[in-house]
Amino acid sequence: MDDPILIAASLARRFEGLCLRPYVCPAGYWTIGYGSRWLANGAAVCGRTAPITAAEADNLLLTALRGLQPEIHKLACVSLPVVASASSVAKGIRPSGF
């Protein structure tokens, strides 16, 4: 596996954990899945958000990571190896929460 998005997703799954019902994260935001703050339709997660499936959580994660990939490349001053790029994404370098 050398796709940085898939590597980052694997790391996020391992360290973020999966919750199929909405919950308040340690930072005080309503989240769902692997820490997603937004649903696939763009709506914010809230306490009344319906539970999602594991497949939906995975889709939210992959969509968020793919959306962040250009931002990571803008922030990087040098070409990064695949693992370093994926690690940066997984560590939460992002312009806004997902």
Describe the structure.
- With 98 residues, the chain is mostly helical.
- The chain contains 3 helices and 2 strands.
- It has helices at residues 4-16, 54-75, 82-90, and strands spanning 19-24, 30-33.
- Helix 1 crosses helix 2 and helix 1 (4-16) packs parallel to helix 3 (82-90).
- The radius of gyration is 13 Å and the shape is globular.
Question: What percent strand?
Answer: 5-15%
* Biggest sheet features: 2 strands, antiparallel
Order of helices and strands: HEEHH
Low-confidence stretches: none
User: Main sheet: which strands, in order across?
Assistant: 1-2
C-alpha end-to-end distance: 24 Å
Radius of gyration: 13 Å
Round the mean pLDDT to the nearest integer and report it.
82
The helix content is: 40-55%
Give the helices and strands, then pairings.
Blueprint: H1 4-16, E1 19-24, E2 30-33, H2 54-75, H3 82-90
Antiparallel strand pairs: 1-2
Helix pairs in contact: 1-2, 1-3
Could you give a quick summary of the protein structure above?
With 98 residues, this protein is mostly helical.
Features:
98 residues; mainly alpha; two-stranded antiparallel sheet; 2 strands; 45% helix; 10% strand; globular
